[in-house]
Specification:
The chain has 387 residues and is an alpha/beta fold. The chain has helices at 20-28, 47-52, 61-67, 86-89, 107-114, 136-155, 182-193, 208-213, 239-255, 276-280, 326-344, 357-362, 373-386, and strands at 2-5, 32-36, 56-58, 70-72, 95-98, 118-121, 163-165, 168-170, 174-178, 197-201, 217-219, 258-261, 287-290, 307-310, 313-316, 345-346, 349-350, 363-366, 369-370. Bound molecules: nicotinamide-adenine-dinucleotide (NAD).
Length: 387
């Protein structure tokens, strides 16, 4: 069985789906590993390192795509320079494992089903204890949270830590983190390590203890509705609750030097939490890093992919932050994807055991069908909107 690792063609994608350290493990299981020439280059993994680990380097991209049994990728398939879609290159019956964004772009699932490709979407791995080693959303979100704080610290015209010097005492920076999921918790931890005083807000009360255990203050808003959905994710909240949370957020923004926003609701546009009026009340020189920029932004002033200065406040809307730390992002992603493959491959043969909740949730297309109910719903919503 050939496991093929594609070179990412997306311009801002520096990660690679498999790293040399994990090739040996697959080769030992009797699997053939093909790596497209230069696939790991932008993450500093040389072809020679893959080769030394037992992989075969394939210079011809067409050969790699058209002969793969399992194709591993980071970003969803793209259209190539020659105008051909990567999806069209894959052989019928082959397996694609990648981030596919099937809830944001369900059309991709339709295309994969039509091509009879079995697709496993890394976003759809359940957030359960058993699936932890495969949880790529978490491994990559943690990098985003860490990097967001470093970006904010670099843009802030102030120190982060408290300093007592001969020239006077510097007060520590005040950081306000909105959304205390995986990215938010890592942002809190990183800001604390840099010496900032940190506050955090989330609509899920369950995160209070985690926030406090990292040395931050939890900003609590009592809401009269259930804010947690299945799987521990946040639910979209009512207009009344939104208003109440915004009033609290506004109070804390006024004192903050740095605001890191990370709030998301799966499959939905990111909730708008910071209005232009709220930004106008912030201190000049303060910095917002909006980690939800790709999903529409938590701040109304965010321009995805750009750094702007609005009313003296720097607003940064980074895109694909994990790709900016490609060594560790690739290493962790490769571990996630290899763990998933261990569930699928037994004695060099693929097994799709849909009684297994992880395979059932991750596998969005199989034998020409869109298997995922959520993806079907998302596709239906687009189709109805168009007609
Ligand atoms: P996410 O990226 O979907 O959202 C980020 C955070 O934004 C969440 O904490 C969410 O509650 C918060 N949020 C949403 N709307 C908000 C609003 N209006 N105002 C303020 N905050 C808002 O979250 P995630 O990091 O992907 O984590 C999702 C869930 O998965 C969490 O319950 C997390 O604990 C759980 N999880 C479990 C495991 C595991 O058990 N193995 C691993 C990782 C994550």
């Amino acid at each position: 069985m050939k496991i093929a690792v594609a070179r990412e063609i997306e311009v801002c994608e520096r990660r690679v789906a498999l790293v040399p350290d994990l090739v040996g493990r697959l080769v030992k299981q009797g699997l053939e590993v093909w790596v497209e020439a230069g696939a790991g280059e932008r993450a500093f993994f040389a072809d020679a390192a893959y080769q030394a680990a037992g992989a075969k380097i394939i210079a011809d991209s067409n050969q790699l795509w058209t002969q793969a049994d399992i194709l591993l990728k980071v970003s969803p398939p793209q259209e190539r320079e020659d105008g051909r879609s990567e999806i069209d290159l894959l052989p019928e019956g082959s397996v694609l494992i990648s981030f596919l964004n099937p809830l944001g772009n369900p059309v991709i699932a339709k295309q994969l089903a039509e091509r009879k490709i079995t697709a496993l979407s890394m976003e759809m791995i359940p957030r359960t204890t058993r699936a932890q080693s495969m949880d790529a959303l978490s491994s990559q979100a943690s990098i985003a949270g860490y990097k967001a704080v470093l970006i904010a610290a670099a843009a802030l015209p102030k120190y982060f830590p408290m300093l007592t010097t001969a020239a006077g005492t510097i007060a520590p920076a005040k950081v306000f983190v909105i959304g205390a999921g995986v990215a938010g918790l890592q942002a809190i931890a990183t800001a604390r390590r840099l010496g900032a005083v940190v506050e955090a807000f989330d609509i899920r009360p369950a995160v209070k203890e985690e926030v406090q255990s990292l040395g931050a203050k939890f900003v609590e808003v009592k809401l009269d509705e259930e804010t947690t959905a299945a799987g521990g994710y946040a639910r979209e909240i009512s207009e009344t609750s939104k208003q109440r949370t915004q009033e609290t957020i506004a109070q804390h923004l006024k004192n903050a030097d740095v605001v890191i926003t990370t709030a998301q609701v799966p499959g939905k546009k990111a909730p708008l939490l910071v209005t232009p009026e709220m930004v106008a009340q912030m201190k000049p020189g303060s910095v917002i890093v909006d980690l939800a920029a790709e999903q529409g932004g938590n701040c109304a002033c965010t321009d995805p992919g750009k750094d702007i200065v609005w009313n003296g406040v720097t607003i940064i809307g980074p895109i694909n932050l994990p790709s900016s730390m490609p060594v560790h992002a690739s290493q962790l992603y490769a571990k996630n994807i290899t763990s998933l493959m261990q569930l699928l491959i037994r004695e060099k043969t693929l097994h799709f055991d849909f009684a297994d909740d992880i395979i059932d949730a991750a596998c969005i297309t199989h034998k020409g069908e869109i298997r995922s109910y959520r993806v079907q719903e998302a596709l239906q919503a687009i189709t109805s909107a168009v007609s």
